[in-house]
Design goal:
alpha+beta, Nuclear Transport Factor 2, Chain: A, 4-stranded antiparallel beta sheet
Length: 192
C-alpha cells in the first residue's frame, strides 16, 4: 500500500512538472518577463538560421497574444517584431516578425517584413503618377512589387475614355521608388 501511494505521488508530481513546461507563465509575472527574453533569443536564432541579417541598431518589441487555429486547441504566442530606424526620418521600418509558442518556446512562424510594400511607398508613386497624368484614383488600377532597395508600381488606365460595350485600349506606366529615400527614381510609360 505504501509503495502504491509513493507511486501515485510520483506520477502526480511528474504530471505537474510536465504541465508547468507546457503552460505559459501568467501575463506580467516575473516568469513571463523571463519567457519574453527567451522568446527574443529564440527569435534571433531563427533569424540567423534563415540567414537574415539584423542591423546593429535594430529594435525589438514583444507582444503576447493568443493563436486560435481551426482544428487544434488555442495557445499563447509571443510575437517578436524586429524594426530599424529609417535614416532621415523619425520613423521605423519593419524587418522581421517571429512567433514563438509561450508554452513550448518553439517557433511557430517567421516572416520577412522587408518584402512588404508599405503604404507610404505607394503614396509616393501615386502622387508622382497623378501629378504627371492628371488622373484620379478611380481612373486607374495599380500593381506593386517590392525589390530589396526599390518598389515598382505599375499603373494601368484607359488610353481613351471608356465607351460602354467597347474594348478600350490600355496604357501602362511604371514608377520605381527608392525605399530608403522615398523618392521616385523613374516614371515611364511601358510600350507593349
Amino acid at each position: 500500500m505504501f509503495a502504491h501511494h509513493r507511486l501515485s505521488v510520483l506520477i502526480i508530481g511528474v504530471c505537474f512538472l510536465l504541465s508547468a513546461c507546457v503552460n505559459p507563465p501568467t501575463k506580467g509575472s516575473a516568469a513571463d518577463r523571463r519567457s519574453r527574453e527567451r522568446a527574443i533569443i529564440t527569435a534571433r536564432k531563427e533569424i540567423s538560421n534563415r540567414h537574415w541579417s539584423l542591423p546593429a541598431d535594430y529594435q525589438v518589441k514583444v507582444e503576447r497574444g493568443t493563436f486560435i487555429p481551426e482544428f487544434v486547441d488555442e495557445y499563447d504566442v509571443y510575437t517578436v517584431t524586429f524594426t530599424a530606424r529609417e535614416p532621415k526620418k523619425n520613423s521605423v521600418r519593419p524587418l522581421y516578425e517571429v512567433d514563438v509558442d509561450c508554452g513550448s518556446e518553439k517557433v511557430t512562424g517567421a516572416w520577412d517584413q522587408r518584402k512588404n510594400v508599405r503604404d507610404e511607398e505607394i503614396a509616393v508613386a501615386r502622387r508622382a503618377f497623378e501629378r504627371r497624368f492628371g488622373l484620379r484614383r478611380n481612373q486607374y488600377i495599380l500593381f506593386a512589387s517590392p525589390d530589396t532597395n526599390t518598389i515598382t508600381v505599375r499603373f494601368s488606365f484607359d488610353k481613351v475614355p471608356h465607351q460602354p460595350g467597347a474594348v478600350t485600349p490600355q496604357r501602362d506606366v511604371r514608377c520605381v521608388v527608392d525605399r530608403t529615400t522615398q523618392k521616385v527614381k523613374s516614371l515611364e510609360e511601358i510600350h507593349n
